[in-house]
Design brief:
Elements: E1 2-6, H1 13-23, E2 27-32, E3 45-48, H2 54-61, E4 68-71, H3 77-87, E5 93-97, E6 111-112, H4 124-143, E7 147-152, E8 154-156, H5 172-179, E9 183-187, E10 193-198, H6 199-209, E11 218-222, E12 227-229, H7 230-245, E13 252-256, H8 258-265, H9 273-280, E14 285-286, H10 289-294, H11 304-317, H12 326-336
Helix pairs in contact: 1-6, 3-4, 7-11
Length: about 350
Amino acid sequence: MRILTIGGTGTISTAITALIASRGKDELWILNRGNRMAELPKGVHQIIADARDKDSLAKAVDGLEFDVVCFFIGFTVDQVAIVHDVFAGKIKQFVYISSASAYQKPPVGYLITEETPLVNPFWEYSRNKIACEDYLMDKYRTEGFPVTIIRPSHTYCERSGPVGMHGDKGSWAVLKRMIDGKPVIVHGDGSSLWTMTDSRDFAVAFTGLLGKQEAIGQAFHITSDESIPWNRIYTEIAEALSSELGRTITPVLHHVASDRIVQEARAFGYDMEGNLVGDKSNSVVFDNSKVKALVPEFKAKISHKEGTLRAVRYILAHPELQKEDPQFDLFCDHLAKL
């Protein structure tokens, strides 16, 4: 197959790019703005263009033919409509990356399937994803546009520690607080269940859906089958830090109600309602039967403990990822006094 990914160097797409390239069976092209060119695997073709500019996108792909187009960076209907208009009638499959945060919040039941309603009154990001899905499914029904919708949940890679909340500079601020023995803020009582998926596992299921006619007109979520409480998530981060630093890191977990975090965050310039009330404060367990039926080789093999160790090791070895965040530190210190 000849595959084009629009975006291809993000948390999720980097692992997909690496897997497709390593197999050597398909011809892979990546269209982005060229910010991370050096990270592309050998043999991957790059197109530099702005996918949010219809003329730029159309000019960049003029004369090129693709079997599959994967759109990783569509956050509004306007953005999705541009890509649809450029590729309608020219491809066999269009894969749109939505979000599992679009599922009903608060959920009626803890087990999430693809039939769970899409409604999230707490997060505009999720509502925009729902609108994009509606737009694309309407195009499928009315004109046969060959869309497949993918809903990732919390998917992480080695460049970012899998934490519940952080500031503008990423997860290092949370890891640094843990290393320094400062209180780490955990929403609620830390007992709600959460599902985190290593991007390498995600890539296996994602690539398995490419080129499958049975996936057209369908939506799939792709997640790990491991759902664990937030207290354990942070404990495993501390264990990974202990292993890598050669000394015991004992996490000081300070629990604050999600609603209170959202309320206090506003004074520090953070909007955390969507991230917490609209997503992470809810217990969710995903039923992956649908994607496994089409991709039987998919099984999430990388545990949270293993994936966390990999991420911590990578971050500690890359100083450029260790970005100080004084504002987030102040916010956490404030919450720790409540």
